[in-house]
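Intended use. Records like the one below are meant for learning the mapping from a protein sequence to its folded structure. Do not use them to infer anything beyond what is encoded.
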Amino acid sequence: MSALLSNLRNTVIAGFVLAAIVFLIYLYVQGYDATLFWPFLVRWLHVICGIMWIGLLWYFNFVQTPTMPKIPDDLKPGVSKYIAPEALFWFRWGAMGTIFFGLILAYLNGYLVQALTIDSIENFTVPKSIVIGIGMWLGIIMWFNVWFIIWPNQQKVLNIGNKFPDISKEAKAAAAKTAGQFSRVNTLLSIPMLFCMVSAQNIF
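Structure written out for the chain above:
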């Protein structure tokens, strides 16, 4: 057991194996229905990626950012050189996976166009399409912020990949401010986004 839990890769693989066993039990009891299985599988992957993405977004905003000023200067490089770059990797790819699987899920369930147009093609007569459409657009805006604003600025702040070794203090401070502000924007948007996604599945 210690060999399993001491290695993250093995732990994750074991988690997927257990999920597969549960699925096999389901197949034995319920039988296979492709029209139900594939949307479910994509939704599951969408949720897994979403947990990775929003979990790290909230880690940055609730834990790392407010704690950094309290960390002694000689210890801060441990966060900025090792923890933050690794967290940003999973953060941005969690965002990509969430959007990717979310769009596929909407297509498989037949509401992609309705959601992306916020049900305007149906003259705003389907509340569920309106709500999930708002949630999807909030998610897309957040994804855009991650890939095209937060990540490029964090690369400058942390000198990731040694691409900005000569950046000035002023430019670094400006990049940090921009990245921080848009991270807060995403934190703000994540709350109504999650409300839309959950409500669309439960109250409409």
